[in-house]
Design goal:
Strand content: under 5%
Helix content: over 70%
CATH class of the largest domain: Mainly Alpha
CATH topology of the largest domain: I/LWEQ domain
Largest sheet: none
Number of domains: 2
Radius of gyration: 21 Å
Shape: globular
Number of strands: 0
Length: about 400
C-alpha cells in the first residue's frame, strides 16, 4: 500500500483516496508553538518600540516557518508512529528551548535561540527524508534543503555577532532565503491532503486568536475597575470578530476551492494560501495581542506610536491576508475588508491622541462592523455556504 493510500494525501495526477485527520501528536506539538507566540508578545511588550516590533516580527516569522514546515511534514507522513514519534518529541524539545530564548533572541540568548531553532529545522529535513519512500518527493525534499539547511546557519552566525544592526540584517537575509525556497525551487513532488491542511492551519489561527485573549489578562496590572472591565470586553469583541471573519464562511469557501483543486494546482494553493498568506494573519493577530495588552495596562492614556501601530496595523495585516487569499483564489477583491484595512491604517495616528480605551472601542467597531456588513449583505449566500458545508 502506498503512502498516499495510507495517509489520504494527493500528488499530482491523483485523486483523494481517503481523508487524513489531524492527529493528537500534532495538537500536542502545537502547544510549544502556543508558548512561543506568548513569548513573542512578551518580547515586543518589553520593548514597545519600532525596534522591538521589528525584532518580534522577525522572530515570529522564523517560528511560523518552522511550524509550517512541520505542518507539511505531518500532512505527508504518519508522524505519531514509530521512530517519527520520538523524533517529533525531540523537535518539541528544541522548539521549547528556542521559545524560552525568544524574549532575548536579539540579546544575550541570541546564540541559544539560533542553535535550538536550527536543530528543529534540520530535524524536519531528516524526518522528511527518513520517512519518505517516493522518488519524486525525495527530489522535492532535496530542493527544500537548499534553503532550509543554510538559513539557520546564518541565524547562528547572527548570534555570534555583537552589533545589533548587523545581527538584524543577517536575520533578514536568513529569513528571506528560507522563505524564498518553496517559491524559487517550487513544490512539485510534494503531496497534500486538503482537508487535513485546512484544518491544521485553521487550528493554528484559533491558537493565535487565543493569544489575543490571553493578552487581555496579561495586561491587567492593577485592581479591576470599570475601565479595565470595559477594555477586556472590547478586546474580546475584537477577538470574536476576527474569529468570525475567518471561520464563519471565509475558511469554508477557501477549503472548498482547495479540495476541488487537483495535482500541482492544489500543491501551489497549499504553498501560497496557507504557508505564505496565513503568515500575514498570524503576524497581525500577534500584533493585535500586543496592542490589547498595552491598552488594558493603561486605559486612560493615549497609546504610544508602536502599540497603536500594533493594534490597528495588526488588524490591517490580518485583513490583508484575507484579501490576498481571495485574490489568489478568485482574482477578485475583498472590497469590504479592503475598506476596513484602509480605515484601520487611518486610525493609527488617531489612537495616539485619544484614550487607549476609546481607541480599542474604535478597533472593536471596525472589526464588528465588517461582520455586520457581510452578514447583512451576503445573508443568503452565507446560509447556503454553511448549509453546504454541513
Amino acid at each position: 500500500m502506498s503512502v498516499a493510500e495510507t495517509t489520504g494525501v494527493q500528488r499530482e495526477g491523483e485523486i483523494d483516496r481517503g481523508e487524513k485527520r489531524v492527529a493528537p501528536l500534532e495538537l500536542f506539538f502545537d502547544l510549544v508553538f502556543v508558548f512561543a507566540l506568548t513569548q513573542v508578545t512578551e518580547l515586543m511588550s518589553e520593548h514597545p518600540t519600532w525596534e522591538g516590533l521589528g525584532q518580534g516580527l522577525l522572530v515570529m516569522t522564523a517560528l511560523w516557518w518552522a511550524w509550517g514546515a512541520y505542518a507539511w511534514l505531518t500532512n505527508y507522513i504518519a508522524a505519531e508512529e514509530g521512530l517519527e514519534r520520538l523524533l517529533m518529541f525531540g523537535v518539541m524539545g528544541a522548539m521549547l528551548i528556542a521559545a524560552l530564548a525568544v524574549p532575548r533572541a536579539f540579546g544575550d540568548d541570541a546564540l541559544l535561540f539560533a542553535v535550538a531553532y536550527a536543530v528543529a529545522r534540520w530535524l524536519h529535513i531528516f524526518i522528511f527524508a527518513e520517512a519518505n519512500d517516493d522518488i519524486d518527493t525525495g527530489q522535492a525534499i532535496v530542493r527544500l534543503a537548499r534553503t532550509a539547511l543554510p538559513a539557520p546557519l546564518l541565524l547562528i552566525a547572527a548570534g555570534l555577532v555583537d552589533d545589533g544592526g548587523a545581527r538584524a540584517v543577517i536575520w533578514v537575509v536568513a529569513l528571506a532565503i528560507d522563505l524564498a525556497g518553496p517559491f524559487v525551487f517550487g513544490v512539485r513532488g510534494f503531496r497534500v491532503s486538503a482537508g487535513h491542511f485546512a484544518e491544521r492551519f485553521g487550528l493554528i489561527v484559533i491558537i493565535a486568536l487565543g493569544e489575543s485573549i490571553v493578552a487581555i489578562g496579561a495586561g491587567v496590572s492593577s485592581d479591576l475597575d470599570v475601565g479595565i472591565i470595559v477594555g477586556a470586553a472590547l478586546g474580546l469583541v475584537v477577538s470574536c470578530a476576527l474569529w468570525w471573519a475567518y471561520f464563519d464562511v471565509w475558511a469554508l469557501i477557501t477549503e472548498t476551492r482547495f479540495r476541488r483543486a487537483r495535482g500541482l494546482s492544489r500543491i501551489l494553493i497549499a504553498r501560497d494560501v496557507y504557508s505564505y498568506l496565513h503568515l500575514l494573519m498570524i503576524a497581525g493577530v500577534v500584533l493585535i495581542a500586543l496592542g490589547i495588552k498595552k491598552t488594558i495596562g493603561d486605559v486612560d492614556e493615549p497609546l504610544k506610536v508602536a502599540p497603536a501601530v500594533a493594534l490597528f496595523g495588526g488588524i490591517a495585516l490580518y485583513y490583508a491576508g484575507h484579501i490576498g487569499v481571495r485574490w489568489r483564489m478568485t482574482h477578485t477583491l475583498f472590497r469590504g475588508r479592503l475598506v476596513a484595512l484602509l480605515a484601520t491604517v487611518a486610525l493609527i495616528p488617531v489612537a495616539t491622541e485619544i484614550d487607549a480605551l476609546l481607541a480599542l472601542g474604535l478597533a472593536a467597531a471596525v472589526t464588528s462592523g465588517v461582520i455586520l456588513y457581510e452578514a447583512l449583505r451576503y445573508a443568503e449566500d452565507r446560509h447556503r455556504i454553511r448549509a453546504d458545508a454541513r
